[in-house]
Amino acid sequence: LYILLCGFPPFRSQERDQEELFQIIQLGHYEFLSPYWDSISSAAKDLITRLLVIDPQKRYTAQQVLQHPWIRTAGKTNSRNLQREVTINIERHFRSQRRKGVVDDDT
C-alpha cells in the first residue's frame, strides 16, 4: 500500500547498504516524506501506520484493514485524482533518483 500511494518502498538505506536496510526494516523505521505524501490523506497514512507494525500481534489483520475508514470510503473518493497523484509521485521519485545517479536513464 505504501508503494502504491507514493511510488517507492517505506524502508531504504541512504547508503544503499544491505545490512543497514535490514536494520531499518527490523526497527520499523519509515516516514511519510514530503512532497510525496503531502496530498495523501491522514486516513491512508493511519492505515499504513497500522500495517507497518513490527509486532505481528499488534499489526492490523486483514479483517481490521477491511473495516478501516480509508478502505470503507475508498469507493467514494475520486479515483482519477488518486491515480494522478500516484503517477506524479512515482515520476517525482524517479527524477530525484536520476539526479542522485541511482537510476539509469535507460530504465
TrEMBL record:
SUPFAM superfamilies per record: Protein kinase-like (PK-like)
Membrane-spanning intervals of the chain: none
Entries under InterPro entries matching the protein: Kinase-like_dom_sf (IPR011009), Prot_kinase_dom (IPR000719)
Protein kinase domain sequence ranges: 1-71
Domain of life from the UniProt record: Eukaryota
GO MF term (any one): protein kinase activity
Protein name listed in UniProt: Protein kinase domain-containing protein
Taxonomic source organism: Chelydra serpentina (Snapping turtle)
